[in-house]
Amino acid sequence: MSGWGKVRCRARAWRAARLEWKAELERWKAENERFKAASRAARKRGETPAAGDPGPPPTGFALLPWLLLGMGAFSNLLQGRTPNPLVGGLGLFAFNSLYVYVTFRSFDRAARESPRTRTALLLMGLLTTGLALGYGGSWLMFFPLLGLATGAALRGPWLGRTGILLAAYSAALSGVRGDWSDATNIGYATFLSTMVTAAILGLSEAVRELRAAREELARRAVEKERLRFSRDLHDLLGHTLSVIVVKSEAARRLAPRDMAAALSQITDIESVGRQALTEIREAVTGYREGSLTTEIDRARSALSAADIEPVFRRSGTPLAPQTEALLGWVVREAVTNVVRHSDANRCEIAVTGTAERVRLTVTDDGTGSPVSRPAPGIGGTGLEGLTERLAAAGGSLTAGPAPRGGFTVSAELPLTAEEPAPALARTPDPG
Q1: Most buried residue, 112, 116, 239, 404, by CB count within 10 Å?
Q2: Rounded distance between C-alpha atoms, residue 83 and residue 89, angstroms
Q3: What pTM value is reported for the model?
Q4: Do residues 173 and 125 lie in contact, with contact meaning Cβ atoms separated by under 8 Å?
């Protein structure tokens, strides 16, 4: 490539750096305006302005005022006390340009770790060495500036060793070019600027990352609670409305020939409705815990009202409350599907326990269709939600056609669930 081509490449590189600097400036202005607007809004509401907001993120502008350390060298140039002022002026301009380039790129992780930034930092070191050996005096103050750029651009385990080596190197060159007492001051200032800059910027970055993680955790908690509530409403209302519909149909059939029996069904409908209101309030507050015995009693009532013969068998040791709560959800969902979709004449609910695990099986002799809109694998949204609940507690759920016809839902759980019932009641289910 010709010399003119190299100049054009260099010019394009400088233009790209200038555009990047302007883009960073615009981002900083926008973030600063957002922070000021949030502070003004907080003051209008009578709150502490931006109490939890650390403000706009730091940029290279935070390190620009330190360029004033080079004012002594600039003053020597203006006063004509610097030999070869053209070389000194070009060196001063090049150093400041590299300093701005490195510091502005140091506030972006990807740019900070790129080879271009490391190359620019190395060029700064070479240029600082040349200016210090050539001029000495005030030009030695470029070493603390080099330390600032190094602390901004370097992070990790090599930072401490780099800071010590850079401090020793600057002290040695300062001793060669000047007084050894000045060398101690230059070395100390270089080490301090390197480590303090890295510590402050690293702490600021860690605080922002922790704040972002906290906001993400809060967002996920809200999303999880919304999904928990939607699933609880699906499980509660799906079962309750199915029972109300079945009992209403029974009351309509009984009314012409047995008004007392019809009134009994209507009384049950009122009781189911009141219980549903209570359960919905408990679901809203997140304190609902199911009971296997209660759900079996409700299942018996719902199945009898739908002219389905209920059969119940139970054996084994007493269960922990969270295990009973989970199995109660399984009974509720399985019986709801039997009443709504199976066209069965008989439904059997069996609970058997061993020394380590408990098994619940709900089997009907109907058509073998668990839901009206089956999903691949295990059925509809209710069974999918139950699968997630039981899996979170170390159990499992299987559902499918029974060998002799009908449909079977089978749940297994350890005798002591791994997660308490309230937390399980919050397991997300988009149904």
Answers
A1: 239
A2: 11
A3: 0.47
A4: no
- The full 3-state SS of the chain, as one line of letters, equals CCHHHHHHHHHHHHHHHHHHHHHHHHHHHHHHHHHHHHHHHHHHCCCCCCCCCCCCCCCHHHHHHHHHHHHHHHHHHHCCCCCCHHHHHHHHHHHHHHHHHHHHHCCCHHHHCCHHHHHHHHHHHHHHHHHHHHHCHHHHHHHHHHHHHHHHHCCCCHHHHHHHHHHHHHHHHHHHHCCHHHHHHHHHHHHHHHHHHHHHHHHHHHHHHHHHHHHHHHHHHHHHHHHHHHHHHHHHHHHHHHHHHHHHHHHHHHCCCCHHHHHHHHHHHHHHHHHHHHHHHHHHHCCCCCCHHHHHHHHHHHHHHCCCEEEEEECCCCCCHHHHHHHHHHHHHHHHHHHHHHCCCEEEEEEEECCCEEEEEEEECCCCCCCCCCCCCCCCHHHHHHHHHHHHCCCEEEEEECCCCCEEEEEEEECCCCCCHHHHCCCCCCC
How many other CB atoms sit within 10 Å of the CB of residue 172? 14
Amino acid letter, residue 413: L
Q: Are the C-beta atoms of residues 23 and 30 closer than 8 Å to each other?
A: no
Interaxial angle between packed helices 259-285 and 292-305, expressed in degrees from 0 to 180 and rounded to the nearest 10:
140
> What's the pLDDT tens digit per position in 260-298?
888 888 888 888 888 777 777 666 655 555 578 888 888
CB-CB contact of 394 with 416 (8 Å): no
Neighbours of 210 (CB within 10 A): 10
pLDDT in tens, 378-409: 444 467 778 888 888 888 999 888 887 888 99
Please state at what angle helix 115-135 crosses helix 142-153, rounded to 10 degrees.
170
Cβ atoms within 10 Å, residue 426: 19
Q: Please state whether beta strands 396-401 and 407-414 pair in parallel, antiparallel, or not at all (unpaired).
A: antiparallel
CA angle 51, 53, 59 (to 5 degrees): 140
- Return all residues near 234 (Cβ < 8 A) that are at least 6 apart: 381, 382, 385, 429, 431
Residue stretches of the chain with pLDDT short of 70: 1-11, 13-14, 17-18, 20-21, 24-25, 28-29, 31-32, 35, 39, 42-43, 45-58, 232, 235-236, 281-290, 368-382, 416-431
Encode pLDDT of 63-73 as tens digits.
888 888 878 78
